[in-house]
Amino acid sequence: MRPLTLEPLTAEAFAPFGCVLDPASAECRLINGGTTERFHALAMADTEAQDGRTILSLFRGQPRAFPYQVGMMERHPLGSQAFFPLTPRAWIAVVAPDRDGRPGEPRAFLVPGTIGVQYAANVWHHPLIAVGAQSDFLVMDREGGGTNLEEADYDAPYVVADPAG
Amino acid sequence: MRPLTLEPLTAEAFAPFGCVLDPASAECRLINGGTTERFHALAMADTEAQDGRTILSLFRGQPRAFPYQVGMMERHPLGSQAFFPLTPRAWIAVVAPDRDGRPGEPRAFLVPGTIGVQYAANVWHHPLIAVGAQSDFLVMDREGGGTNLEEADYDAPYVVADPAG
């Protein structure tokens, strides 16, 4: 087993895999007569392939046990998938570059509980990793025909230590 | 001024105006090896008109003062707009049928803090009404060209009493 070190999330580090949904760095527009701040377009859906539609769902994740073994990855060839936490609790996003149709060396990001990420279409990522307690997320992704899920196992798992230390 | 009574939100009552985003009544799928519940497709975006795209934004609403006067309404002819609260605090959705291109008699719904609504494209609604304290919402709506905002004033305002009594 190989250790997988948690990295802090930055827009630059995550750029090859999608985008970071961070209100603090989004364009802010004052709307509704000045009563509302609109942190604009944290994410833009990419779901149109094969007549896909964009949907909003709620994911309720059970917390993972640590040290956590990353043994498989998945990707959605036909659409992006954005996660934004409803519970202000840090979580973990694991992504990987593609290597000849399989996930390469993974990278793990510790994501603050007020920030989301969007995996770009066809980007290898691990299923939701909630930390510490049951956690809810709003998820914007694709509904439609076609095969929009691929899974692949690693030959040997990577291990993420407990972010709580 | 005319009183506007708050109604409890039900899917049936809201159906003429859009849909209710309620995890408790959504289809629930167990995914990610049983570690995650997916409350599926709380809302489906309708943003494709005139090459629109679907985006996710964060709205930070300041609380309204009560009694609150509903003096105007708006609508988005080219796209749906979904709101889901990030802060578990009740809020108010005001909608109206169309009457010859203007908003008709409004209806006001008290929405629990764990539930969202989506205004269908071209449905008259009041801008975000946060209650009690600053409240954050995730908003799925449309980005793109064309005129996607109409506003109209009522001849005389309707008045919503403080939901806290």
Automatic annotation (TrEMBL), chains A, B:
Q: Which reaction does it catalyse?
A: (S)-ureidoglycolate = urea + glyoxylate
Q: What is its EC number?
A: 4.3.2.3
What's an example of a GO molecular-function annotation for this chain? ureidoglycolate lyase activity
Keywords of this entry = Hydrolase, Lyase, Purine metabolism
Taxonomically, the superkingdom here is Bacteria
- Which pathway does the protein contribute to? Nitrogen metabolism; (S)-allantoin degradation
- List the SUPFAM superfamilies: RmlC-like cupins
Q: What class of enzyme is it?
A: lyase
The record's Pfam families line, in alphabetical order, gives: Ureidogly_lyase (PF04115)
GO biological-process terms attached to the record: allantoin catabolic process; purine nucleobase catabolic process
Query: Which InterPro entries does the record match to this protein?
Result: RmlC_Cupin_sf, UAH_cupin, Ureidogly_lyase, Ureidogly_lyase_bac, Ureidoglycolate_lyase_dom_sf
Task: Name the coenzymes or cofactors required.
Answer: Ni(2+)
Tell me, how does this one assemble?
A: Homodimer.
Its annotated function is as follows: Catalyzes the catabolism of the allantoin degradation intermediate (S)-ureidoglycolate, generating urea and glyoxylate. Involved in the utilization of allantoin as nitrogen source.
Family per similarity comment: Belongs to the ureidoglycolate lyase family.
Protein's recorded name: Ureidoglycolate lyase
